[in-house]
Amino acid sequence: MKIVIDDKIPYIRETAERLADCVVYKKGTEIGPADVRDADALIVRTRTRCDAALLEGSSVRFVATATIGFDHVDADYMRRAGIEWMSCPGCNAASVAQYVRSVLLLLRRDRGARLGGMTIGIVGCGHVGSRVKAVAEEYGMRTLVCDPPRQERGDGGTFVSLADIARESDIVTFHTPLTAGGPHPTRHMASAEFFDSLGRRPLIINTSRGEVVDNGALLDALIYNKVADAVIDTWEGEPHVSLPLLRRAWIATPHIAGYSADGKANADNMVIAGLCRHFGLPLPPPIVPPELPQGFADGYAGDDLYLRLYNPLDDSARLKAAPERFEELRGNYPLRREKA
Q1: How many Å apart are CA 257 and CA 99, to the nearest integer?
Q2: Catalytic residue among 255, 330, 336, 337
Q3: 291-329 confidence digits (pLDDT tens)
Q4: CA spacing 20 to 30 A to 67: which of 82, 86, 176, 262?
Q5: How much is the pLDDT for 53?
Q6: Catalytic site residue 238?
Q7: Handedness of CA 267, 269, 271, 277 (dihedral sign)
């Protein structure tokens, strides 16, 4: 069996090489038809478009994306071609919640925010949003949840409209997939009209997909003081981000909110389980992420420990200093654990 794997997927190599006779590693943006022509399986991240242009005429029968998002996978083509595919929903939910927690703690530490007196609007409350909701409630925040698909399914909980979020929130955080069609499209849901409708001057956080927030409209909202500030992890046009928006944002990171070692190992294990199930292979031992250096958390507790484990200002400083290194910073991300 031959597997082609994005070379920036960590921790998976030893396990993959136990399962396959041939494993090829290649930069995600450079994986092309010639690479997959005689492959049985393809394991990617968001930078590889999986469609007919890549896969037509190949021997690939299984595709896995080690990400929660799957807008880079042409599901209609996969169905027509008889190729099984999978994503990894929830794999990095705790990692993104860690990112948002750190933002909240920085608001409290550096900007004097009283979290217990604030309202946070959570747009999308699936694997990630529900974790963010729990974090916010730890700090006594009032939470508003907008999730029309869950509301229509009759899921438990109280839901509000996007208009309610816009009117009442001190912080608005987006945790939706990217969809352009259907009854509830999310592309540019945070539009110029959304920013014009804001009742307060909220902090905007986007860790979902860049196109969920109209980046030009967000920049205008910052310029004209419609929003207090912005925390941006996902961008339109990645890796070629808006430099004016990068400069204006309080925290600007290179699509790494979900990049804890724990989240990556979760994705690896989900991918390996799917691969073994598809090809009828025995499941190998689970992949475990590396440990932090000894003594890393000594002397830290409470909020200080959370920020010792992850402070997004560090990633922001690196990106703002060298935005042209977006992909390099993302692809060579340092070890980050969710717990000491």
Answers
A1: 6
A2: 255
A3: 999 999 999 999 999 999 999 999 999 999 999 999 999
A4: 82
A5: 98
A6: yes
A7: negative
Q: For 95-113, what is each residue's pLDDT tens digit?
A: 999 999 999 999 999 999 9
Extract the residue ranges of the chain whose pLDDT is less than 50.
Answer: none
CA nearest to 97, candidates 334, 287, 316, 309? 309
Count Cβ neighbours within 10 Å for each residue of 98-137 and write b for 16 or more, e otherwise: bbbbbbbbbbbeeeebebeebbbbbbbbbbbbbbbbebbe
The pLDDT of residue 66 is 97
Asked if the bond preceding 202 is cis, omega within 30° of 0, the reply is: no
Q: What is residue 296's DSSP assignment?
A: T
The active-site residue, picked from 45, 188, 209, 336, is: 209
Question: Active-site residue 188, yes or no?
Answer: no
Which residue among the candidates 142, 167, 187, 238 is catalytic per the annotation?
Answer: 238
Terminal C-alpha separation, the chain: 38
Distance CA 61, CA 3 (A): 11
Tell the burial category of 285 from Cβ atoms under 10 Å away from its Cβ (0-12, 13-18, 19+): exposed
Are 289 and 264 in contact by the 8 Å Cβ rule? The answer is yes
Give residue 18's pLDDT: 96
Q: Is 277 a catalytic residue?
A: no
Count of residues for the chain? 340
